[in-house]
Amino acid sequence: MMASDIDQHATLQTKERYNRIARVYDSMELMMEGQFRHWRQKLWAQGRGNVLEVGVGTGKNRPYYPVGAKVIAVDIAEQMLAVARQRAHDLGVEVDLREGDIQCLDFPDDSFDTVVATCVFCSVPDPLLGLREVERVVKPDGQILLLEHVRSDHPVVGPLMDLLSPLTSRLWGASINRPTVRTVEQAGLQIESIRDLGPMGIVKSIVARPGRSTSTPQHYAMESFAGSRETEALTR
User: Fold this and answer.
1) CB atoms within 10 A of CB 138
2) What is the residue-wise DSSP string for 176-231?
3) Residue 54 is part of which domain span?
4) Which of 184, 211, 6, 2 is nearest to 110 (CA)?
């Protein structure tokens, strides 16, 4: 991705917001983390090979890294990385933490077997650019594992999220009304499964593969919050 494609102003704003709140970020999300901890663990259990974590933040996922996996973790905000380094030190583990922008990753094509992002694309200034970069750096037979909160399709909750999103974005950088599933498809990724992890479809676990994957599924599995399964055709 060319650096000229990036909205530099919006990207700098995002970086400054997360640098500003880095030291209190975990406290801000303390109530939600009780549930998200379980979802993070299940997502990371699917990781394999050389792994890239984008948007590592304060390093909350570190306890769930696959045993023996080689993980590189990047974040745009150096103060968030400072907290992540301290967490790694406290856990007594080595982590390859690097400053980087998901919209313009500093890795060659086809570098990773797995790319993981948890609650990241709500705050990337251009999520489509970011997902296309993910598609670029993952190997053709690799996988992309996402845990994201998205806009609800509920006729009342969805518009309410639209109303509140400018405020949440200004306070801590997260847009709460992103249509992330649609953006994943627009980026050319092949969705293998989507699982609703909470009521009203607000939190989703998404497993996808690069568009140039040697395996081309025609359908993907959908699992609702209640646990029922259905299959929807991909429209491309």
Assistant:
1) 27
2) TT--HHHHHHHTT-EEEEEEE-SGGG-EEEEEEE-TT-S---SEEEEE-TT--EEE
3) 3-233
4) 211
Cα(91)–Cα(11) distance, rounded to whole angstroms? Answer: 31
Report residue 42: phi and psi, to 5°.
Answer: -65, -40
What amino acid occupies position 50?
A: N
Q: What angle do CA 69, 75, 81 make, to 5 degrees?
A: 90
Task: List, for residues 182-196, the tens digit of each pLDDT value.
Answer: 999 999 999 999 999
Number of domains in the chain: 1
15 versus 230: the higher-pLDDT residue is: 15
Residue located via tokens 């992103």: 178
Strand partners, 207: 145, 193
CATH number for 105 = 3.40.50.150
Residue 89 and residue 149: Cα distance in Å, rounded?
29
Mean pLDDT (whole number) for 41-70: 94
Per DSSP, the three-state class of 205 is: strand
Amino acid sitting at position 135: E
Per-residue confidence band for 231, with pLDDT thresholds at 50, 70 and 90: very low
Q: Which neighbouring-strand residues pair with 73?
A: 53, 97
The pLDDT mean for the chain works out to 89
pLDDT digits (tens, 9 = 90+) for 171-182: 777 899 999 999
3 state DSSP class of 167: helix
How many Cβ atoms from other residues are within 10 Å of residue 159's Cβ?
Answer: 13
